[in-house]
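XRE family transcriptional regulator, Streptomyces aquilus. Tokens?
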Amino acid sequence: MPHATQHADVAAVVATAELDSALRGGPFHVALRAAIAARGLPLQRVQHHLSRHGVKVGVTSLSYWQQGARRPQRPESLRAVRALEEILQLPEESLIRLLAESDDTATGQHPAARSYRSLVEASGVLHRLLAELDSPVDGGLHTLGHHERVRIGGRRELLGRESHHIVRAHKDGVDRFVAVHHGDPGCVPERMQVHALENCRTGRVRLHHDTGVLVAELLFDTRLRAGETFLFRYAVEDGTAGVSREYVRGFGPAGGQYALQVRFDENALPTRCHRFTQHSPAAPRSGRQELALTGLHRSVHIVEPRVRSGIVGIGWDWE
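Tokens:
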């Protein structure tokens, strides 16, 4: 009997270590399977606990989730994931975060271009770069319209993007805008170029190699008064990373219209495209909608009449 107890203790230690590792690095289905194993709960008991939380999920669905055959996506399923964190005594947001990273290749989905971890790191770097430019979080401008055109090259890389902004000053003395570009994994921000195209000129540029973040001042040559509107246009030439799979844009306070167009090289056309939204980098993706690629111009687009705080983007799959 002492022998059996010793083996049980070792098994518990191993299960706990596996769970800790899975929660740190994922993917989601491995972490879920490890959490259920560490708690020693059969799936029928997990289902029972979920029902006590007011969430209905079948044993078959739970089995698929922990095998990686399916991913929780519907609102009810996401409620179940949050309940599972409590039932399995896991840190809050731990499973939801792994879902958001979308790096579970066993589902047949491509990994996201940027993980939750990389977005958090980039956010910290961005604050430091903005501080170097003495740029406050509130730059004194309200966006009325932002039209963005993204180009994907023949090597499936992010060639660059062009932005056309329509803004209104909400305080006196505003004379600049700070543009932010976050390249794909493996990009080289030192080789990127910022071009002021209309009603502005390029000022100071700051970058961070490891996260691929670049920030650039666009100077207006005029000081806006509160209530005045202004139009300007700029571009970022990139083309320094590998295969691109999505383009995302984050928004703070609610703003005006946002339009995003992604155009592909005729020699590198994706098999399918879709739009998506996220409330935050840690939240699961929702609002998925397939987008049809236009034949003549090889592009897809989305239009948000009035943006809300969060993330919106277009993703695509390669053959």
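Residues 1-15, 102-113 have pLDDT under 50 and may be disordered.
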